[in-house]
Amino acid sequence: xxxxxxxxxxxxxxxxxxxxxxxxxxxxxxxxxxxxxxxxxxxxxxxxxxxxxxxxxxxxxxxxxxxxxxxxxxxxxxxxxxxxxxxxxxxxxxxxxxxxxxxxxxxxxxxxxxxxxxxxxxxxxxxxxxxxxxxxxxxxxxxxxxxxxxxxxxxxxxxxxxxxxxxxxxxxxxxxxxxxxxxxxxxxxxxxxxxxxxxxxxxxxxxxxxxxxxxxxxxxxxxxxxxxxxxxxxxxxxxxxxxxxxxxxxxxxxxxxxxx
Length: 260
Prior knowledge:
Blueprint: E1 23-25, E2 31-36, E3 39-44, E4 49-54, H1 57-60, E5 71-76, E6 82-87, E7 91-96, E8 101-107, E9 113-118, E10 124-129, E11 134-138, E12 143-148, E13 155-161, E14 166-171, E15 176-180, E16 185-190, E17 197-202, E18 208-213, E19 218-223, H2 226-231, H3 236-242, E20 258-259
Parallel strand pairs: 19-20
Antiparallel strand pairs: 1-2, 2-3, 3-4, 5-6, 6-7, 7-8, 9-10, 10-11, 11-12, 13-14, 14-15, 15-16, 17-18, 18-19
């Protein structure tokens, strides 16, 4: 038997990273940002070395008896000047990229932070948690604006659209929910998935939403703009028909439902 794996050799490594966090490129594409236990590490892609570390104050204190919370998710602001880091204790820290300092610690979740997303203008930050809740934070005011409850299991991914006026969330409960941030209520629930919904992706023009779940299909939704919603003169029956949930995959129709 030919051992094909012997033909591959390790070319290099960035070091030991032990964290459940995602990994991001910075705006220049020359650095990688990753979680490293309680720290957030910056790596040089070209040199393969760690060039900076963001360490919470609790973790840097040798006199503290509490174990430092692990980084579970990170997100960059649209202008790449700020980094949001979520932790296993439910806290969210906002870091200034230039000075490598913590600007504020936001507390509101009782479970690990599982998803973070800035609005397109950077004014709002949404966080999802294993405690099934979502919080929308005012980045400038450094305070929570609203909390959403409705999912029955951990939040897995989220997206802010329409300048942060709409929040879309996915969960392990097999649902996608659309939240009106202005009116602070759930405006739509998309169901019919075969299992847990794990990921969301919004097109750059915010016209399409793609959802990935444990099944073998991807679902594509149309996101209606505020102008389309205001200009719509359809009847209640037509609106109900628009929101019909039907299954779609990569080989099927490109659009399956409207997200208002």
